[in-house]
Amino acid sequence: MANEATKDLVRSYYERVVAGGRYDEILRFVGANYVDHNAPPGAPRGAIAVEAHLRGIRNTFPDFAIQIHEVVAEGDWVASRVTATGTHLGAWHGVEPSGKCIALRGINLDRVSDGRIVEHWGEADTLGMLIQMGLDPFKLPK
Predict the structure, then answer these.
(1) What is the pTM assigned to this prediction?
(2) Which residue range(s) make up the domain with 41?
(3) Which residues, 6+ apart, have CB-to-CB distance to 133 below 8 Å?
(4) What's the confidence (pLDDT) of residue 94?
(5) Residue 119 sits in a domain of what CATH number?
(6) Residue 24 and residue 129: Cα distance in Å, rounded?
(7) How far is residue 76's CA from residue 96's CA, in Å, rounded to a whole number?
(8) Residue 137 maps to a domain
(9) Helix, strand or coil, per DSSP, at residue 11
(10) Number of domains the chain is built from
(11) Nearest to 74 by CA among 109, 24, 25, 44
C-alpha cells in the first residue's frame, strides 16, 4: 500500500470510527488479529476489542471528538498527532464525572498490513487530562 493510501486509511479510521462512532465500519479498517499494545495483557484482540474500547470512551465523554493535526507514513507505519476533546460526563476508571471539558493531546502509531490496521500504540497526556478533570493526580480514588 502506497504511503498516501496508508495515510488516508488511518485518517479515515480515526475520523469515521474513532471520532464518528461508526462501529459498523470497524471491520473495514481493522484486521482480524488487531493488537492494541496499550491494552492490558490478555485483553481481547480484533474488532471486539476496538468497539469495547471506543464505547468506553463514548460512555465517559459522550461528545468525544478528535482533531488530526499531522499524519506521517513510512512503509506500513503511520504516525498521527491528535487532540481529543470531550466533556467528562461518565465515570472513568473510578473517577466520577466532573462535567468538565477536557482536551487530550496524543500521538498514535499504527501498522497497516493488507489494507487494514493490525497494530496500535498510543501515547497521551493522561496527567493533563486528570488535572483538567479537577483531580489531584497524586490522590486518585482507589
Answers:
(1) 0.89
(2) 3-132
(3) 88, 92, 95, 98, 100, 102
(4) 81
(5) 3.10.450.50
(6) 29
(7) 39
(8) no
(9) helix
(10) 1
(11) 109
